[in-house]
Amino acid sequence: MSTLHTVNKSPFGNATLSSCLGHCLPGDAVLLIEDAVYGALEGSAMADQVKARMGEVALYVLDGDLKARGIDAGKLISGAKCVGYDGFVDLVTEHDRTQSWL
């Protein structure tokens, strides 16, 4: 069974993304939405921690939230995948359950 984890808080204001990554199992996916998209930026303080889980855990970023914050997708950690709202729906249906990290 796999889980889609959604995180919406900035990783620089609390430890939600870090906690999420620590609880993910191989085959899970993490979708960063709202201010959590900052956690997928190459060179950020979270980059090494996020990269350490990639391969076991898939990383997705909501494209609309990147654009709303003026972030170019080219600044993301290599391997992070941008998805639109339709991709968000696909991820929900592809996983057995969804866990929101608040």
UniProtKB/TrEMBL annotation:
Gene3D superfamilies: DsrEFH-like. GO terms for cellular component: sulfurtransferase complex. One of its GO terms (biological process) is tRNA wobble position uridine thiolation. Keywords: Transferase. It comes from the Bacteria. NCBIfam families: sulf_tusB_dsrH (TIGR03011). This is Sulfurtransferase complex subunit TusB. It comes from Ruegeria sp. PrR005. The gene is dsrH.
